[in-house]
UniProtKB/TrEMBL annotation, chain A:
UniProt keyword annotations, A-Z: Transferase
GO biological process terms on file: tRNA threonylcarbamoyladenosine modification
Every Gcp-like domain range: 30-138
GO molecular function: transferase activity
Classification via InterPro entries: ATPase_NBD, Gcp-like_dom, T6A_TsaB
Name of the protein in its database record: tRNA N6-adenosine threonylcarbamoyltransferase, mitochondrial
Superkingdom per UniProt: Bacteria
From TrEMBL, chain B:
Protein name: tRNA N6-adenosine threonylcarbamoyltransferase
Binding-site residues for substrate, renumbered to this chain: L138, V139, S140, G141, G142, D172, G185, D189, N284
Keyword annotations from UniProtKB, A to Z: Acyltransferase, Cytoplasm, Iron, Metal-binding, Transferase, tRNA processing
Protein purpose: Required for the formation of a threonylcarbamoyl group on adenosine at position 37 (t(6)A37) in tRNAs that read codons beginning with adenine. Is involved in the transfer of the threonylcarbamoyl moiety of threonylcarbamoyl-AMP (TC-AMP) to the N6 group of A37, together with TsaE and TsaB. TsaD likely plays a direct catalytic role in this reaction.
A GO cellular component annotation in the UniProt record: cytoplasm
Length: 216, 362
């Protein structure tokens, strides 16, 4: 489950293949969408048709892990998917695997065109900033290898900071790719990120100064 | 299903509330508050509240289940606050509620927070059932509302509400003016000990004859706060020491007076001799005292749920859903979102068509 950009839910079988995947694009409507998306994926899973081998059906019946996309992304939307993932996992009595959302984006790129050179995943971080993570291939566990951790870059400085590095601007995360990253992390016994979302910014709040005069 | 087992999730402000009820029996009222994190900001910061809800959600659900000694698979339904409240905070609860309901294949009820405050009363053990109709006065840091409740599940009318600050907010702001910490309610109470509530005549908002025409049941506390600040500045400019106890007691009296006067006016105008109090500000002892005394004079019966059910909590959300279920209402669809200004007339949000309703969630 990932709501760092749009809302995305995917289901993969024990072999890592996509069983079902649905999404809704856009920065809004995560709270409205997430329940129905989850339900659609679960409904599609056992009857996924030609693509679904019996093992996949079994996997759907006995879900073993829930992957939660931890961002970066606009906070309000991001939290909805994490909350849903955790509660869903609680209901099934299975663990939640926290996955940086950019890892899923990077895996999707690697799976589709296997770039030989390093590349940057870019997502809109609002406030004229871009969230950037630089990847180079996959590591020994099959997990996209982040050579530079996620940073926020002012939009005006992206050109200067990234130079000739290949840029991939992402507006959608694949739930199935997220699940595959999680699967590999579980297989390798690795923790990819903490339980706190990748907020990258402190909350907007100021400690108030002394009360101002109202005049008489 | 006469005694549905319901888990309620409430995240409209700074309390992560998880409640479990069986019908009208309270099994758990688990609350994780982020109040301490807001204290240094002098008020609730929405982003801080939303972050705390996400952190607290899973542990709070687990604590509630342990306390109620029930398992998730035993639940008959999940309930959640859809609004009104802070949008970003509400959405954490909605995300969790949908995840849980779909995971368990249980029906989901999206309900109104304010009506939940009224439902708190039916969870009070050993008390006779709430009689209808009743006037309800709900006072907290987030709302100040006067309601005419003819039926908890079908007929709630908004008579009036605050046009600016909530009463609890006024306590917080005046506490700051007096140099007292957040939250202001208990601080003002402490400061008012020994003070004369009649020492300073602070204004009663929207209480003049000219205001009463249009705003008979509405409240305004912004002018009161400014009047307190002005009074203190004048005294300071004149070189007088500030009689903090008198200021606190007089300010509190102005708030209490206007709340009780308008609530009892509604009881009398509507011919409803019952008043239900709810919301966190009901913790204020002076408000309860004045309400009870003046209601007795007016022949109005006052009901006050225990304080743990007056502040925001998940039990009242579960309790309201249990009543909806008992009255045969269909669950909500999964399509609802957060509505920060949800009107009180929408007791349940996105109820499924009875015709289309099958089994499971949907
Ligand atoms: Zn409330």
């Amino acid at each position: 489950m990932d709501t760092s950009l749009g809302s995305a839910v995917g289901l993969t079988g024990r072999d890592g293949r996509t069983v079902a995947e649905v999404s809704q694009t856009g920065h809004l409507g995560h709270a409205e969408a997430i329940g129905a998306l989850l339900e659609q994926v679960l409904a599609a899973a056992p009857s996924a048709g030609a693509g679904a081998a019996p093992t996949d059906e079994a996997a759907a019946e006995t879900l073993t892990h829930v992957a939660a996309g931890m961002g970066p992304g606009p906070f309000t939307g991001l939290r909805i998917g994490i909350a849903a993932a955790r509660a869903f996992a609680l209901g099934r009595g299975v663990p939640v695997i926290a996955v940086p959302s950019h890892h899923a984006a990077a895996l999707a790129v690697i799976e589709s065109d296997a770039p030989a050179e390093p590349f940057a995943i870019l997502t809109d971080a609002r406030r004229r900033e871009t969230a950037v993570t630089v990847y180079e291939g996959i590591d020994v566990d099959g997990i996209p290898h982040a050579v530079v951790d996620t940073v926020l870059v002012p939009q005006a400085e992206v050109d200067r900071r990234l130079g000739a590095l290949r840029r991939i601007e992402v507006t959608e995360i694949s739930g199935a790719a997220l699940a595959r990253v999680a699967r590999r992390a579980v297989a390798a016994g690795r923790t990819l990120t903490g339980s706190e979302p990748l907020y990258l910014r402190p909350p907007d709040a100021r400690v108030p100064a002394a009360p101002k005069k109202v005049g008489s | 299903m006469s005694e549905p087992l319901v888990l309620g999730i409430e995240t409209s402000c700074d309390e992560t509330g998880i409640g479990i009820v069986r019908g009208r029996t309270l099994l758990s009222n688990t609350i994780a508050s982020s109040m301490d994190e807001h204290a240094r900001y002098g008020g609730v910061v929405p982003e801080v509240a939303a972050r705390a809800h996400l952190e607290e959600m899973q542990p709070a659900i687990e604590r509630a289940l342990a306390e109620a000694q029930v398992r998730l698979e035993d639940l008959d339904a999940v309930a959640v606050t859809s609004g009104p409240g802070l949008a970003g905070a509400l959405m954490v609860g909605i995300g969790a509620a949908k995840g849980l309901a779909v995971s368990l294949g249980k029906p989901l009820y999206a309900v109104n927070h304010l009506v939940g405050h009224i439902a708190a009363d039916i969870l009070t053990p050993d008390s006779v059932p709430l009689e209808y109709p009743t006037i309800a006065l709900l006072v907290s840091g987030g709302h100040t509302s006067l309601l005419h409740v003819r039926d908890l599940t079908t007929d709630v009318e908004l008579l009036g509400e605050t046009v600016d600050d909530a009463a609890g907010e006024a306590f917080d702001k005046v506490a700051r003016i007096l140099g007292l910490p957040y939250p202001g309610g208990p601080e003002i109470d402490r400061a008012a000990v020994g003070g004369d509530p009649a020492a300073i005549r602070f204004p009663r908002g929207l209480s003049r004859a000219s205001d009463l025409e249009k705003h008979r049941y509405d409240f305004s506390f912004s002018g009161l706060k400014t009047a307190v600040a002005r009074w203190i500045e004048r005294e300071q400019a004149a070189g007088n020491p500030i009689p903090v106890a008198d200021v606190a007691a007089s300010f509190r009296e102005a708030v209490v007076d206007v709340l009780v006067t308008k609530a009892l006016a509604a009881c009398i105008d509507r011919g409803v001799p019952r008043l239900l109090l709810g919301g966190g500000v009901i913790a204020n002892r002076r408000l309860r005292e004045v309400a009870l005394a003046r209601a007795a004079e007016a022949g109005v019966t006052v009901r006050i749920p225990p304080l743990s059910l007056c502040t925001d909590n998940g039990a009242m959300i579960a309790g309201l859903a249990a009543e909806l279920i008992a009255s045969g209402r269909q669950p909500s669809t999964l399509a609802f979102g957060a509505d920060s200004t949800l009107p009180v007339t929408e007791i349940q949000v996105a109820e499924r068509d009875a015709v289309a309703a099958g089994t499971g969630v949907g």
